[in-house]
Amino acid sequence: NRLTTERLLALGAYSQASFARLQAQAQLGDRIALRSPGKLVVYRKPAEFVRVAARVKGSAAEQALSHDDCVALEPALADTEATLAGGIFTPGEAVADCHAFCRELFARLRAHRGFRGHLAEPALGFVRDAQGVVRGVRTAQGEVSADAVVLAAGLHSRQLAAPLGIALPLYPLKGYSLTAPIAAGHRPPEVSVTDFEKKILYARIGDELRIAAMVDLVGDDTALDARRLASLQRSVRATFPHAADYDRATPWAGLRPATPSGAPILGASGVPGLWLNVGHGALGFTFSFATANIVAELVSGHASPLPLEGLTL
User: Fold this and answer.
1) Which CATH superfamily groups domain 39-91+171-258?
2) Order of strands across the sheet with 149-151?
3) Domain ranges, ordered by start, for the chain
4) C-alpha dihedral over 22, 24, 28, 34, to 10 degrees?
């Protein structure tokens, strides 16, 4: 609904500002393939485009573009089979390699005195004292004690929280992606492009084109569905036929930890010592800088920098 959309827009804006501060301090750009080419959402149906264009009319943050304007902005769209009704462009939107970012973040954390990282060490549950306060995490290698614990384990958060009597309203949205190499002679989109009707996102990350798409409600199944991948390949080749080497594309499927409202769940869990940062759906990287800051402030005993209405358990 409109209220949830406004909350998520505010969360996204705060996350963007938080990342800008981190980038100014850490200068991660080249190591995480960071670019700020803007985002273009293209529409195939004239009626849908007219409706959205009317909504953004007069907006300083978004621009409604005709078909020709879209092609002028992103020449790779000239190769698409379909005629586009138009598009909505948001300047300044950034793309980056989130896996590379996590590696860089871990390397910097490891350099801090007193930091301990436990990679590939499954969390099995929580350690509680006689009063029921969470005092640490049980892992396959033993216990890790802590003054406070933040639960941010995606869908696995459900299983970890359940023994504490916490029922997290998370469900899996299965999504697919293709990562195709870009070589000399290819014409990839430089702008981040979202095909609204087909629900496909295209983003150049370094020398690869990342294509993300689809939402399947199939429980906890992460298997690659050949029919879904073939359908995605057909759509991609029709839209950007010369953008990358699709024959060498690497497929992936994963489960997005979503909530019924579409908003993440942040803050107190109801169990002393345990805090929540879960339910980001497909927008984990987008919201992560905001939600991490919010939860860090709360754990430290400070007020949230954003209103938390609609964002708590």
Assistant:
1) D-Amino Acid Oxidase, subunit A, domain 2 (3.30.9.10)
2) 149-151, 274-278, 265-268
3) 39-91+171-258
4) 100
Per-residue pLDDT of the chain (313 residues; tens, 9 = 90+): 788 889 999 999 999 999 999 999 999 989 999 999 999 999 999 999 999 999 999 888 899 999 999 999 999 999 998 889 999 999 999 999 999 999 999 999 999 998 999 988 999 999 999 999 999 999 999 999 999 999 999 999 999 999 999 999 999 999 999 999 999 999 999 999 999 999 999 999 999 999 999 899 999 999 999 999 999 999 999 999 999 999 999 999 999 999 999 999 999 999 999 999 999 999 999 999 999 999 999 999 999 999 999 999 9
Please calculate the CA angle 204-228-215 and round it to the nearest 5 degrees: 75
- Model pTM greater than 0.70? yes
| Token duo for residue 179 | 């990562």
Q: Which two tokens stand for residue 141?
A: 């290698």
> DSSP of 133-190, one letter per residue?
-EEEEEETTEEEE-S-EEE--TTHHHHHHGGGT-----EEEEEEEEEEE--TT----S
Q: By CB neighbour count within 10 A (0-12 exposed, 13-18 middle, 19+ buried), where does 24 fall?
A: exposed
212, containing H or E segment: strand 208-216
Q: Are 290 and 11 in contact (CB under 8 A)?
A: yes
